[in-house]
Design a protein that fits this description.
Blueprint (H helix, E strand, L loop, with lengths): L16 E3 L2 E3 L1 H7 L11 E12 L2 E7 L14 E6 L11 E2 L4 E2 L7 E5 L3 E3 L2 E7 L5 H8 L5 E8 L10 E6 L4 H10 L6 E7 L14 E7 L8 H8 L7 E8 H14 L7 E7 L4
Parallel strand pairs: 12-13, 12-15, 13-14, 15-16
Antiparallel strand pairs: 1-2, 3-4, 3-11, 4-10, 5-8, 5-11, 6-7, 9-10
The chain binds flavin-adenine dinucleotide (FAD).
The site of flavin-adenine dinucleotide (FAD) has 22 residues, from strand 8, strand 10, helix 2 and strand 16.
Length: 283
């Protein structure tokens, strides 16, 4: 099955193919390095050890296995790539790095998605996954059973907390809930934190880590509301100073609107805010 978005040609020997305009094997591509991107950390094959529905649309999966040895979460709001079995299969096949991206030997793309490594416990690594329509990772979270396999690469760099900030503003949608929970656990207790979570209807309100000096507001979008509206309104209502720090993540177009406001109309210095697109709506 061709999961890639580019044309592909498999030659009679079944090994040589056109990948991103390059004809050769995956190994050839690795050697030639298509664009010289740094190879991500190796995949660690893990299995589901526990699954918990922690909200109407949020599932916590715990991944465990010997290959998790040495994995550490050093910073909050970091990222990991998770590799899942291809659609219609329960078998987990590891792809090869071609110098630019991970591909299977036939040139097709594996299912790899990015998540926040939420917590390491003696049971394994917790990841909290939003359940939504049409997502491969979301479908895996819904159907995975103890023993179901997934592989993990990472972690990628997280967020460095500004210990000198006089206040923190944490803003995000459902996908940012795990990272915001982690940030709440890491921001020094003397710094007041204001949190705005904009969630689709039916997501519910979840318990965030308890902390003094934290104000949490949940904004449930009604049908037809444009994503980002509540986040932007919350920002417009907040007095941003040059000692306030802001961390914000969510749907890409909503984050674009927030960047435009912050660094344009509000005149905030770019160094005060981290704004990250976590997913792209295709509706
Ligand atoms: C650094 C980083 C950290 C992240 N951490 C988390 C995390 O901890 N938990 C988490 O759930 N997500 C997290 N995400 C977002 C996650 O990677 C995406 O939501 C991803 O697209 C989900 O994959 P999928 O296979 O379920 O859906 P896809 O196959 O990628 O998408 C299928 C369809 O679903 C839509 N879609 C994707 N995500 C959502 C959503 N959340 N709500 C509604 N529709 C959606 C897409 O627009 C598309 O139409 C993070 C992303 C980044 C970059």
């Amino acid at each position: 099955m061709n999961q890639g978005r580019f044309p592909r040609r498999v030659s009679p020997d079944g090994r040589r193919r056109l990948i991103n305009g390059f004809v050769g094997t995956v190994a050839d591509m690795t050697n030639r390095s298509v664009s010289g991107r740094r190879e991500p950390p190796r995949f660690r094959t893990l299995s589901l050890s526990r699954k918990e529905q922690i909200g109407p649309r949020l599932i916590r999966v715990t991944l465990a296995g010997d290959e998790l040895d040495g994995f550490e979460i050093k910073q909050p709001a970091a990222s990991v790539r998770l590799l899942f079995p291809s659609r219609g299969s329960s078998e987990l096949v590891l792809p090869e790095w071609n110098g630019n991206e991970f591909l299977f030997a036939d040139g097709s793309r594996p299912i790899i998605r990015t998540f926040t490594p939420r917590a390491m416990t003696s049971d394994g690594l917790d990841i909290e996954m939003v359940v939504h329509k049409g997502g491969a990772a979301s479908a895996w979270a819904k159907t995975a059973m103890p023993g179901s396999r997934a592989a993990l690469s990472g972690p990628g760099r997280g967020y460095t907390i500004d210990e000198h900030a006089t206040g923190y503003l944490l803003i995000g949608d459902e996908t940012a809930v795990p990272a915001i929970s982690q940030l709440l656990e890491h921001i020094p207790s003397a710094i007041p934190v204001e949190i705005h979570l904009e969630v689709a209807s039916g997501f519910g309100r979840l318990e965030l880590p308890t902390r003094a000096r934290a104000d949490v507001a949940w904004h449930a979008l009604a049908a037809g509301d444009v994503r980002g509206t509540a986040m932007l309104a919350a920002l417009r209502d907040t007095a941003l100073t040059d000692t306030t720090s802001l961390w914000c993540a969510g749907e890409a177009a909503a984050m674009h609107g927030i960047r435009t406001y912050l660094f344009g109309e509000a005149g905030l210095a770019r160094s005060r805010a981290t704004v990250r697109g976590y997913w792209k709506a295709r509706d």
